[in-house]
Inverse folding.
């Protein structure tokens, strides 16, 4: 949870870019030039977020773009969305956010993610400026309702589920990065956060550096859901999507518990060539 002090500080001082230190003249501490330079995955697959070759992606809308791998063996989640590619300088910024308590860095990246997520489809382009203040809940509901009524538009998820940390690691780190990211999405879209639904019951070692198979073994039965679901559309929120072992495990548990669908929202996607 963002501290009140941080919210106040953010409101009082003019934006200064976290990368080049220039004054940004935006309600975001990231200048437009640095934001444009941040790496993205071009033509991402709707299901797994990996890049599809430009030639294969030609003529396909964002929504119908699915890679060959996902056509053969789709992941259990219906879509994934990441704002950035997990390469320089995003990997460094995320490390500062998680390991050095740079909550402002995380907040800036999460605000960019929230905005890109919200405006990813053409029918969703509402030209909403990035605001310092969260949208008032009633306005957010109105926006959500009008978007939902749009024919052919993609419905928003019902709940944001930050991937939980094991209590021991949460105590060590002092905050859950996934919750900070979900906070920014909630502030822009009004989608509720549910951090009670899912609990981490085993303290699995970090996934970093493990092979895909080892990651799947490592994460098996790491989560427990605290209640049955009734068709809710969930969005699992995390910092980085790599092999998808963690979110696949949780997606299966959620679908077994009655979730209608599960999608994944992360700050960054690791390109396939950089898994290890
Ligand atoms: Zn800058
Ligand atoms: Zn794919």
């Amino acid at each position: 949870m963002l501290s009140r002090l941080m919210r106040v500080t953010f409101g009082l001082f003019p934006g200064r870019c976290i990368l080049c230190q220039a004054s940004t003249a935006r309600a975001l501490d990231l200048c437009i030039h640095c934001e444009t330079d941040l790496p993205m995955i071009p033509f991402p697959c709707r299901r797994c977020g990996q890049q599809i070759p430009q030639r294969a992606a030609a003529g396909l809308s964002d929504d119908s773009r699915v890679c060959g791998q996902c056509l053969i063996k789709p992941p259990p989640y219906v879509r994934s969305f990441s704002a950035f590619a997990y390469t320089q300088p995003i990997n460094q910024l995320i490390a500062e956010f998680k390991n050095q308590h740079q909550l402002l860095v995380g907040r800036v990246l999460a605000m960019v993610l929230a905005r890109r997520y919200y405006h990813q489809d053409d029918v969703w382009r509402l030209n909403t400026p990035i605001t310092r203040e969260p949208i008032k809940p009633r306005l957010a509901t109105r926006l959500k309702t009008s978007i939902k009524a749009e024919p052919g538009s993609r419905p928003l998820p019902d709940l944001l589920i930050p991937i939980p940390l094991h209590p021991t690691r949460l105590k060590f780190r002092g905050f859950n990065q996934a919750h900070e990211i979900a906070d920014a999405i909630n502030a822009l879209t009004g989608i509720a956060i549910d951090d009670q639904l899912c609990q981490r019951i085993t303290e699995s070692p970090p996934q970093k550096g493990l092979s895909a198979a080892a990651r799947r073994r490592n994460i098996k039965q790491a989560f427990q859901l605290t209640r049955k679901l009734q068709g809710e559309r969930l969005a699992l929120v995390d910092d980085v999507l790599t092999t998808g072992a963690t979110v696949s495990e949780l997606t299966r548990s959620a679908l077994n518990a009655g979730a209608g669908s599960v999608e994944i929202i992360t700050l960054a996607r690791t390109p396939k060539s950089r898994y290890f």
